[in-house]
Each structure stands twice: as structure tokens, then as C-alpha cells.
């Protein structure tokens, strides 16, 4: 079993050191630390220096850092600059599942693969949709995928227009029609 914590509840009271030791004492196999406090929600910047300081409070278990890892370069930098045994990519991978392969390549000494074309990104999103529908059924899969589809379009020309339509997709036919007609094109 592993655990994931934040640095604390608020900036004026960081509890991560005590919590890390308690997690280790309880028998966890690893600890992941997100570099923000609960009061931050997802605002501001993850504090990787604080994450790294936790390592000296652990005796046996690996420390995994988390927060703001949205590129292969940032993953490499996290390993280079901070005393972590691993990293966790979270929100940045929503709509960008290829980020894992991009981050792993330089860690193996290989060049970073390029961003997929928009057609490849659309195909990845449709495969993601199929997997959601297989797992949850078409109705719930469509509902869940509306949010993920917005992540796939984020930052692209026409993303706002696409989000407007995909947010109202009620079933498989609606979803597929919106993707075909409105997903950003090259």
C-alpha cells in the first residue's frame, strides 16, 4: 500500500514531515507528496524544495514527488534537482496520455518524442472514450468523457467552441458527432 499527501492543510502549518513518518511507520511501501497545501487547491506552484526535504525524514520507503509536471523537461529536472525516488504525473496527463512516453524517453537517454498530430490526438481521445464506455457503459462513459474531451482540446484553436458542444453530448451518437464536427483541426 502507498499513500499520497500534501504538504499540510495551510502554509502556516506544514505537517508533511510528521505525516510522512507516520505513513512509513504504518507500513506503507512508498509515499507520494504533492507540493501544495490543501488550502492551495490547485493554485500557485508546487514547492519541490519542501517535497525534497521530506526525504531526510524517511528511513526505508521511496519518496515520489508530484505537482506541476506537465512536460518531459520538468520530469527530468525534478529528478536532477530534487532528492526524489520517483515522480507522479497527474492532471497534466488528462487529455495528454502521450506525456508518459515523452517523459520516460529522456530518462532512458532517448530523444523526447514529438507531440502527436491533431489527428493522432483525436484518435487517442476516441480510444479513451471507448475504454470509458466499456468500463462504465455508454451513458456514464459519455458523461465522464465530456470533461476529458475538453482536456484533449485544451490550448488548441477552436477549443472553446468544441467545449461548448461536447459539454452537451448526451449519448454516444451525440459525442461522436461533436468530435467529428468540432474537434480542433490542423
Supply the CATH architecture of the largest domain.
Alpha-Beta Barrel
Query: Level of helix content?
Result: 40-55%
How would you describe the oligomerization state of the chains in this entry? single chain
Number of helices: 8
Kindly provide the name of the CATH class of the largest domain: Alpha Beta
Can you tell me the number of structural domains? 2
- Strand percentage: 5-15%
What summary fits the major beta sheet? 4 strands, parallel
The ordered string of helix (H) and strand (E) elements is EEEHEHEHEHHHHH
Average pLDDT metric: 96
Spatial shape: elongated
Radius of gyration: 19 Å
Low-confidence stretches: none
Q: Based on DSSP secondary structure assignment, what is the total number of beta strands?
A: 6
CATH topology title of the largest domain: TIM Barrel
Structural class: alpha/beta
Topology of this protein?
Layout: E1 2-6, E2 8-10, E3 13-14, H1 16-25, E4 30-34, H2 48-54, E5 63-66, H3 72-81, E6 86-88, H4 99-107, H5 118-136, H6 138-153, H7 159-166, H8 172-182
Parallel strand pairs: 1-4, 4-5, 5-6
Antiparallel strand pairs: 2-3
3D architecture notes:
It is elongated and about 55 Å long. It has 186 residues and is α/β, with parallel strands linked by helices. The protein has helices spanning 16-25, 48-54, 72-81, 99-107, 118-136, 138-153, 159-166, 172-182; strands at residues 2-6, 8-10, 13-14, 30-34, 63-66, 86-88. Helix 3 (72-81) crosses helix 4 (99-107). The strands form 2 sheets. It has a 4-stranded parallel beta sheet with strand order 1-4-5-6, covered by helices on one side. It is built from 8 helices and 6 strands, in the order E-E-E-H-E-H-E-H-E-H-H-H-H-H. It has 2 domains: 2-107, TIM Barrel, CATH 3.20.20.70; 118-182, Non-ribosomal Peptide Synthetase Peptidyl Carrier Protein, Chain A.
